[in-house]
Every structure is written in structure tokens, then in C-alpha cells.
Design goal:
- It is built from three helices and 13 strands.
- By secondary structure, it is mainly beta.
- The strands form two sheets. Strands 2, 3, 4, 7, 11, 12 and 13 form a seven-stranded mixed β-sheet that branches. Strands 1-6-5-8-9-10 form a six-stranded mixed β-sheet, with no helix packed on it.
- The chain is globular, with a radius of gyration of 17 Å.
Length: 238
């Protein structure tokens, strides 16, 4: 199974290689396939599989962000990195629990993603603005897997610092369910070892201390590039 370092290398060169060549060189398809396999040591192997917790939407959501699709040939970008910022590459799998499988079955989803820039500032949230910096709607693969690149979000001071975080609205795309019943699941993702996680979070109602919302990232290949995995387990509809 390719390492995250290998994955990072592949995603870097993928802009100049054909999709077929990238797949053959990297085994990226196998990596994503195995992420959905109960034998890969992921959360579905645990007897206790906690649902991912919701978190507040916050004041900076803006509908209508540009749509991107996961592709072996092109790495989706939430916020373009100019080389001076810390880069973040995040991958994961969206799963939906059921009575038959409480640890979840992979499901395709739309991920509405937004976060602050490196200075802790959100792009213009007014609906009349065409500025969607650090905002996107990402279509997962059919097996629920996703990967994207962004910059490491900055903290901001709203009377006390918030930890670095990324907002998500996750809408499963299950053909068996009426689209009108597929309501988005709203939450935030945080980073381990952030000193402003709960109880030091200035947002008293945010869930930054919840372990299901905290991911561990590590340097891969470059001191200013962080790579991590965040898997999501949603409640089922049955």
C-alpha cells in the first residue's frame, strides 16, 4: 500500500502526467480502494464506531462555491498555495452507518468546504460577491473517498483565539433516498496539538474538543507540507 509520502509525490507530479500513467505509477486507485475495505485497520475495524459529531456552521458560510471532482489527474484545491504558506493535503472516506453495519458503508457525497486564509481571514461572504477564495464544493469518488489540497488555515481572534479549523457541510448522494431528504451534515474539523482546542477555544459552543473532529497531520516530503486523514461516519437513515 502506498505511503502518504508516496501519495504526496504522486499528487505533485500528477499535473504533468496522464491519468493512466499516474494510476500505474502510484497505485493511487488501490490506496483509495483499500481505504474503504474493512481490513485496512481504519475506524470500521473498531467494535465501537462513534458517529462524527456535528458542529456549528458559524457566520462565514457562503452558498454556491465552485464545484470540483476528485480525479487522479488533478488534485482538487480549496485554497491555492503560493509556496510561502503551509500546505495541507487531507484525505478521507465518508461512511454512513446502519443497523446492519454500525461502522458504516462508504457513500458518495458532496463536501461543501470553507476555511480562513493563512491570516485567519475569510473571503467575502456576501452573496453578491464572486470571491470564493478558500471555498469549494468537492464531489467525492463513488466509494466516498476524497483528497484535496489547501493551505493550513490561520487562527483568528474574535475576542480570544479560535483553533485552526475547516468547515464542512456533507451531503450524502444515496440513490436509494429521495434527494429532498438528504440534508447536509454540518461540522468542523480541527488539528491535534492545537493549544486553542477546547477548553481554550474562544467559541464556547464549538466542539473543538471532540475526538471525532480532530485529525493528526504530519510533515511529508516538505517541512511546510502537512498530510493527514479524516474519516467521517454519518448517521444512517434506517
Amino acid at each position: 500500500m502506498p505511503s502518504l509520502l508516496h501519495l504526496l509525490f504522486v499528487l505533485t507530479i500528477s499535473q504533468i502526467m496522464s491519468p493512466l500513467a499516474v494510476a500505474q505509477q502510484s497505485g493511487l486507485s488501490n490506496l483509495l480502494d483499500r481505504r474503504s475495505n474493512p481490513g485496512n485497520g481504519g475506524p470500521q475495524q473498531r467494535q465501537n464506531c462513534p458517529l462524527t459529531s456535528p458542529d456549528i456552521e458559524g457566520p462565514y458560510y457562503k452558498p454556491g462555491a465552485p464545484v470540483q471532482r476528485n480525479s487522479i489527474a488533478t488534485l482538487a484545491q480549496v485554497c491555492k498555495n503560493n509556496g510561502a504558506n503551509d500546505r495541507l493535503i487531507l484525505n478521507g472516506t465518508i461512511r454512513q452507518a446502519s443497523k446492519k453495519n454500525p461502522c458504516g458503508t462508504p457513500v458518495a457525497a458532496v463536501l461543501d468546504i470553507w476555511h480562513a486564509n493563512a491570516d485567519g481571514v475569510y473571503s467575502d461572504r456576501s452573496r453578491s460577491s464572486s470571491d470564493f477564495t478558500c471555498r469549494t464544493r468537492l464531489m467525492t469518488n463513488p466509494d466516498g473517498t476524497f483528497v484535496f489540497s489547501s493551505i493550513f488555515p490561520g487562527r483568528y481572534d474574535d475576542g480570544g483565539f479560535r483553533p485552526a479549523h475547516i468547515h464542512f457541510q456533507i451531503t450524502p448522494q444515496d440513490d436509494r433516498i429521495d434527494a429532498r431528504r438528504q440534508r447536509p451534515f454540518t461540522t468542523q474539523m480541527y488539528f491535534a496539538q492545537d493549544q486553542f482546542l477546547n477548553p481554550h477555544d474562544s467559541c464556547g459552543i464549538c466542539a473543538s474538543g471532540d475526538p471525532t473532529l480532530i485529525t493528526h497531520v504530519s510533515h511529508q516530503s516538505d517541512i511546510k507540507t502537512f498530510v493527514g486523514t479524516w474519516d467521517v461516519l454519518l448517521a444512517g437513515n434506517n
